[in-house]
Amino acid sequence: METRRVTEHPTTPRRSPAGADTPRPADRAIPHARPEAAAGGEDSPVRGSARPAPGDTPDEAPPGAAVPAPTAPGGTAPDRAPEDSEHARRGGDRLRFVGAATRRIARGMDLDETVLGLCRASVPAYADAILVYLRDPLPVGDERPTGPVRLRLRRTDRLPDYVDRTHPGPAPAPGAPVSDGTGGVTRDGPPTGPEPGPDARPSAGKRPPLPTTLAEQPAVGAAEVADVRTGGALAEVLRGVRPLFGTSPAAGAALRELLGQERDMPPGDRAVLAPLRGRRRVIGAAVFLRRPERPAFEGDDLLVAAQLATHTALGVDKAVLYGREAYIADELQRTMLPDRLPQPTGVRLASRYLPAAESARVGGDWYDAIPLPGSRVALVVGDVMGHSTTSAAIMGQLRTTAQTLAQLDLPPQEVLHHLDEQAQRLGEDRMATCIYVVYDPVAHRMIVANAGHPPPVMLHRDGTAETLRIPPGAPIGVGGVDFRAVELDAPAGATLLLYTDGLVESRHRDVWSGIETLREKMAETGRLTRPDASAPLEPLCDEVLDIVGPGDRDDDIALLAARFDGIAPSDVALWELEPRPETAGQARRLARRALAAWGIEELSDSVELLVSEVVTNAVRYAERPVTLRLLRTDALRCEVGDDVPQLPRLRQARATDEGGRGLYLVNRIARRWGATRLSTGKLVWFEVPLP
């Protein structure tokens, strides 16, 4: 007799030879579903389970099918070899299913992927519905959670309400959109189409909806949060770790405590409660459910549930640890970079940072903008070799060193020299590249020193872009090398872009090809703006990052864009005053004259008082001429410089003191003030808001 094999969905009833629907034999094990449905198809070693049509021989029946044994002539039963073979086949199918399912669960790297892997592996191959509860909050590593144990519903999954039974075939892919017969599409929830009327009948080939029970609608009415009472039924089941049938007294009480008292459980052994135990403690529970028309679970299915629960719990532990490591890496990288850029006078700034990849969240790239005395600003971009927490830690130390050196107002080449020495003190092979730029908005000039870093690109107001020619220098950490600095023009309206090599270098192009591509991209962006305006900074940074293709980002990227607005000469007043007793009065007259020329005479009283106090402190100890400079930008800024390196300190003068109140007045009247050391002395400054 010719044998015909077909593959059926686990919920698809078998047709009789006459064409009428008849219930299937009572399949009681996993193998009545396709193993590839548990693992997405490609990971399963078995592509399907063959199903005999009515009339097939018993030895070709599906695993777990209760096929009546034929009667031998004379009324004697045959030997039980076919039954033993069937049992072995079902055991092998279980092993293949567990292997495919655990591989799918293990693919997840984060919490949601792991839980989703369990749901997709279990439905429909093992169960018709699943509910996954996890502790809230989840313990991380060795930490001991405090307070009561609370489980929160993390995810549910189920078969769609309608399954086509006209054409026996493979089960629908878990989670795939399935028509519900009313025009809607369902996925992990009720149909989204219009509700049929009371007299509506299901269309041909559709199974009518079953009564709403826990297996059909697991998420409807299920408790979102369940508190595990000490000594309660749920606590005892979780402590026991082993999966239990829902019909057992302990599991039944535990399910009512977990899901809510009002939920109706499927009849028979069609519910399994499996605790999820991680490496050290129980972290949740999974509930597997089957519909009434599907065969109930059997004893061997508890072993499968135990394997699924164990691998899921270990995956959750792994995902929680990975999430903590990712959080630490993100926090480390975030704290190593500026929270926000300063807003120095005469220059606008924008920045970007992109990690190398999702698995390498930390790196050695950094950028910084440091306000300097005299309204100047230092622009720094560096790159430490490597993508690890060690690289990030070295980067943080070098960035802190650069900030300290910048406050000493050292020349750029001297800053790089001290960074080189610091890198050698940190250990061997601590190498980095760095570019250091000092911009002066009054002089419209900049001084650039380079230590093995890619050259900056400047975009002019007219839309032309050029790569600046500066001495390349050796990387920081080499030792025994000299760094050179060059002074260049910084015209108003120009944009300077500093970046790391991750922007221009990849496996598909070399550094210089990438630099040329970057220059062309900036020129193209500059031509899109009006001739009398400069390209906006933030969109310019986004456009620049577009030169990095989807597969080109092999390194992290840091870039810093600076728009040079400068300060017009008409907004600057500068004098040199001899350190004499009458210098304070002279400074007051010069300040009053400048304020009158700028049309802000209403500030004369307060500015003259502050100028007199600061200049008096300077000429008291200075031996060389004192400089007085007034700058009119978004505020009125006054700067007084002398050759004494000691910085003034704000202090509370006593009633009997004759002095010590000058800085107190400056602190009360000025909007901001400060003092900075220079290579030739110090600079004291204050700002007063414009009227």
UniProtKB/TrEMBL annotation:
Pfam families, per the entry: HATPase_c_2 (PF13581), SpoIIE (PF07228)
Matches recorded under SUPFAM superfamilies: ATPase domain of HSP90 chaperone/DNA topoisomerase II/histidine kinase, GAF domain-like, PP2C-like
Biased composition annotated in UniProt, kind: Low complexity: 62-79
Keywords: ATP-binding, Hydrolase, Kinase, Magnesium, Manganese, Metal-binding, Nucleotide-binding, Phosphoprotein, Protein phosphatase, Transferase
Regions of compositional bias (Basic and acidic residues) in chain numbering: 24-35, 80-95, 154-167
Domain (PPM-type phosphatase) ranges: 347-564
Region entry Disordered, spans: 1-95, 138-213
E.C. designation(s): 3.1.3.16
Name of the top EC class for this enzyme: hydrolase
Catalysed reaction equations from the record: O-phospho-L-seryl-[protein] + H2O = L-seryl-[protein] + phosphate
Alphabetized Gene3D superfamilies for the sequence: 3.30.450.40, Histidine kinase-like ATPase, C-terminal domain, PPM-type phosphatase domain
GO molecular function annotation: ATP binding; kinase activity; metal ion binding; protein serine/threonine phosphatase activity
Function: Primarily acts as an independent SigF regulator that is sensitive to the osmosensory signal, mediating the cross talk of PknD with the SigF regulon. Possesses both phosphatase and kinase activities. The kinase domain functions as a classic anti-sigma factor-like kinase to phosphorylate the anti-anti-sigma factor domain at the canonical regulatory site, and the phosphatase domain antagonizes this activity.
Protein's recorded name: protein-serine/threonine phosphatase
Organism field: Streptomyces chumphonensis
